[in-house]
Description:
By secondary structure, the chain is mainly α. Helices cover 79% and strands 0% of the residues.
Amino acid sequence: MSDDARTSGTNDVIAQLDQRSATSFYWSLTILATVGGFLFGYDTAVIGSILDFIPYSFGNFALGYLVASTSLGAAVGALLSGYFTDRFGRKSMLVVDAGIYAVGALLAALTWHGYVLLAARTLIGLAIGADSAIATAYIAEYAPADRRGALSFLQQWMITVGILVSYLIALVIFLLLPEYVHGFDWRFILGLGALPALLALALRTRMPESPRWLMRHGHYEKARKALRMLGVNATVDQIRQSAETLDKREQKQSRNRRWTPGVRRALMVVVVFFIFQQITGINIPLYFGPHLLTPLLSDGSSALHAAIAGVKVTSVMAAVNVIASYFGFRLIDRIGRRGISMGGYVGMALCMLLAAAGLTLTTGLTQIVIVMIGLNLFIAAFAVGVGGTGWVLQGEVFPTEIRGRAAALGATADWLANYALIQAFPVWKDAIGLAWVMVCFAGLAVLAIFFIALFLPETKNASVEEIIDTFEKQAAR
């Protein structure tokens, strides 16, 4: 298709944007938009490697909050970001978030008191949560329809890379500077998170604002410039006509055109999808991996050597997460959201049962091998089929006018479920044992399959406006 907007209809500007080829600029723009995903992965995982070496004395509640503070902060940040991103734009809020994260990371590294560290990680959480709500909404508003899934999936891939990098950095620092493990090491590991945040802060100022958001708010000249950066040339009059057509289309859907029955249904699907994504157990091996696996690997050595052994094994799982996410990125626009997520949950259920069997029916080296195979395949199934799908749906199923707020509610549900699982897992494990917790995770994965089969329509290759219509029709029935 030509890059010049045609005059055969008023919706041609949006049609061109949906039918563009995903050029290298699209990919670089998306990587920049998902730096928050990298920071999300890095900082939520890094605490597991350094927790035993932070010298401050915390009570049980404060210690739990230290681990979970980014998740709670992220829930608040995601919720607050909804209004601001719809009011001030996607790009501007992404810039602000990068700055907040940089300040939080530096404050954590330079902290002089335990409570300052708690405040710094809460601040980091606010930025992570806001970024997780905004990034996929931003991507969905410029991505070509046939590559929107892959582009949005980069959010999940960046999360997995952040998790892996956090473990690798901790491993290298512990091996190179073991004598400073209670001083410089943990501060340096936390402070390194400021580097990608500062880079994002500088580069995000050069990103185009979402063209759909600009059109929706009547900034037609700015929309023309943003569209040109994305490879679509159009006149201000053509952009104005497209914006007016989209506005009329939304008005026809309902008198209350913001939160229509279809939008509420879409929000329900996204929220429940995110809850299942978390409560089926993915963060247990990734967050608690060193703690859970060290007893299986321990040879009576020092705490530092035991920690290094746990980090090494967890790094392998994090690497599996990164590699498997690549296949999800390649397949989501081919298989579709329904098929790939249902297949992922099938694999997750079977692999959790395998790991549970390894814990209860075997011992010694055989137990370690079976548990590791089960957990790694579980992570792979999640990464291919489930991890990125929620972020894709979050960005593509809501109208432009309220996409920021609706996506924020979805991200808030994700973070609250994340926190609930982290908080509940130790008590849950002590009550019924790790193997039975794994069986429960498998059962929840089966429930997720039924939910997807009943409520999630296929959205691949459809424009965001067509997806909204699909949910309206389902709600009408």
